[in-house]
């Protein structure tokens, strides 16, 4: 007898995504949502005077959640009919016989499929957005904790002016805030397809209501309200515009690029031994090299983020290839790509939550690396101090230039420590400023307004963005990884 181990499962399902997101796109939820849509349609039609019995409504209500044995009925019917919606109309009618004749009255397949997809797009964003807020909140706390800790900045992959550990984290937060705004806007822009008929003209419903336009509009409004949407599209074809998938997909894909960028930064910091992701007591970094502490969470974040940022291309291609009122070449690809968008984003958020909950910072390593480079960075300060003491700026520049090159050769060619300061102390030219040298080399004087920037950013922009999620943040927990 075969088991689940004999059948391929996407790793997003078996390894990475949350149970709530997996359920959202599960067959049971999909087809139960279709049944709910049929119930809302029948209820609304009855409210507007169409002859639908109380028994029909009650039986439909009693069987909105599809059961395992009903999946088998629908599968057999689809095999025979080659039409998934009609297969489920038949299966629903079997368990709600009083409603069998009115299920799907006036509707087209996209009444079920497209309205359900819009519900999934909305509910999926309602899962993702608070999770993103939690990550931003955790990073904000981290940034505030380390706002004063100087560290090397890097431009072009080379040491540059000092920043702080907290200031660097704010770069990540700022990009995540853009993602938060993008997702919030995409969610708020979602509208329901509603009841529009085969080509979006509502002709079938106009016929059902004997040409009464007001009742057709009321039907659309009633079903839209029952589905929890504020409004429906006035204009549609047989489907809702696939431009909606592009809009949501681009917001999620952009978030994927942020994930990879953050993951790469964390991996580089781990390589420098300055900051590490959590590493558990019994975790194994390498099957051969027992000493290794591989940043597997951040590497996975990069991998999934890369996949996520490439998925919107499916939506773009699908939208541009639609013919007139619709063509079915959108169907198979959307069954694959839309769930993958959401499961991938969900998996990335689980990883971000886990990593940001347990960052390990090594201040002494950071300090040592700063001290290795600080003498070179201090050369301009040394020159300015010399001028204040009455020395020639040009003479000071030449003296420090020669000593800097000697110290650089000492580091690069002989593998020794940076001894520039010792050379300065031994050079008579710099005798007038030797008592100021230590103060000139205080790392905190090289970070500019980084601490103040962190404080202002987290207390204004971040705080304002997170206000709608305060109750969620108060109960947020650290995400555990399944593997």
UniProtKB/TrEMBL annotation:
GO terms for cellular component: cytosol. This is Adenylosuccinate lyase. Homotetramer. Residues from neighboring subunits contribute catalytic and substrate-binding residues to each active site. Residues 374-458 form the Adenylosuccinate lyase C-terminal domain. Pfam families: ADSL_C (PF10397), Lyase_1 (PF00206). Belongs to the lyase 1 family. Adenylosuccinate lyase subfamily. InterPro entries: AdenyloSucc_lyase_C, Fumarate_lyase_CS, Fumarate_lyase_fam, Fumarate_lyase_N, L-Aspartase-like, Pur_lyase. It catalyses: (2S)-2-[5-amino-1-(5-phospho-beta-D-ribosyl)imidazole-4-carboxamido]succinate = 5-amino-1-(5-phospho-beta-D-ribosyl)imidazole-4-carboxamide + fumarate; N(6)-(1,2-dicarboxyethyl)-AMP = fumarate + AMP. One of its GO terms (biological process) is 'de novo' AMP biosynthetic process. Keywords: Lyase, Purine biosynthesis. GO terms for molecular function: (S)-2-(5-amino-1-(5-phospho-D-ribosyl)imidazole-4-carboxamido) succinate lyase (fumarate-forming) activity; N6-(1,2-dicarboxyethyl)AMP AMP-lyase (fumarate-forming) activity. Pathway: Purine metabolism; IMP biosynthesis via de novo pathway; 5-amino-1-(5-phospho-D-ribosyl)imidazole-4-carboxamide from 5-amino-1-(5-phospho-D-ribosyl)imidazole-4-carboxylate: step 2/2; Purine metabolism; AMP biosynthesis via de novo pathway; AMP from IMP: step 2/2. SUPFAM superfamilies: L-aspartase-like (SSF48557). Its EC number is 4.3.2.2.
């Amino acid at each position: 007898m075969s088991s689940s181990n004999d059948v391929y499962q996407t790793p997003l399902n078996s390894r990475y995504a949350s149970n709530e997101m997996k359920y959202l796109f599960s067959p049971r939820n999909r087809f139960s949502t279709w049944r709910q849509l049929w119930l809302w349609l029948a209820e609304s039609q009855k409210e507007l005077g169409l002859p639908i019995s109380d028994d029909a409504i009650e039986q439909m209500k009693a069987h909105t959640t599809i059961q395992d044995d009903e999946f088998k009925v629908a599968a057999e019917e689809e095999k025979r009919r080659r039409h998934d919606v009609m297969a489920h109309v038949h299966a629903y009618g079997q368990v709600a016989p009083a409603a069998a004749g009115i299920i799907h009255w006036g509707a087209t397949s996209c009444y079920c499929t497209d309205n359900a997809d819009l519900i999934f797009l909305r509910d999926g964003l309602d899962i993702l957005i608070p999770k993103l807020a939690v990550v931003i909140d955790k990073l904000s706390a981290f940034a505030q904790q380390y706002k004063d800790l100087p560290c090397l900045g890097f431009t072009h992959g080379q040491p540059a002016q000092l920043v702080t550990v907290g200031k660097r984290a704010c770069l990540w937060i700022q990009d995540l805030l853009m993602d938060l705004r993008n997702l919030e806007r995409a969610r708020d822009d979602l509208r329901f397809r509603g009841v529009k008929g085969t080509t979006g003209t509502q002709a079938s419903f106009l016929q059902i209501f004997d040409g009464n336009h007001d009742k057709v509009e009321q039907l659309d409004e009633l079903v839209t309200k029952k589905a929890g949407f504020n409004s429906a599209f006035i204009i549609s074809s047989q489907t809702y515009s696939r431009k909606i998938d592009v809009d949501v997909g681009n917001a999620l894909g952009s978030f994927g690029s942020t994930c990879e960028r953050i993951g790469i930064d964390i991996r580089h910091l781990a390589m420098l031994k300055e900051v590490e992701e959590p590493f558990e007591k019994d975790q194994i970094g390498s099957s051969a090299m027992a000493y290794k502490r591989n940043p597997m969470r951040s590497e996975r974040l990069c991998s999934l983020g890369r996949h996520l940022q490439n998925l919107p291309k499916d939506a773009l291609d699908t939208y541009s290839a639609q013919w007139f009122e619709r063509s079915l070449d959108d169907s198979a690809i959307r069954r694959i790509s839309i769930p993958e968008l959401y499961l991938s984003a969900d998996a990335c958020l689980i990883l971000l939550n886990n990593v940001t909950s347990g960052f390990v910072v090594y201040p002494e390593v950071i300090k040592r690396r700063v001290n290795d480079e600080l003498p070179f960075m201090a050369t301009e300060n040394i020159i300015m101090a010399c001028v204040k003491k009455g020395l020639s700026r040009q003479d000071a520049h030449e003296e420090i230039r020669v000593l800097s090159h000697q110290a650089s050769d000492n580091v690069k060619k002989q593998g020794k420590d940076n001894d520039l300061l010792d050379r300065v102390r031994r050079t008579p030219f710099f005798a007038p400023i030797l008592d100021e040298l230590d103060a000139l080399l205080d790392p905190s004087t090289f970070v500019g307004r980084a601490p103040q920037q962190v404080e202002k950013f987290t207390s204004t922009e971040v705080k304002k963005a997170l206000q709608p999620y305060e109750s969620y943040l108060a109960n947020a927990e650290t995400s555990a990884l399944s593997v």
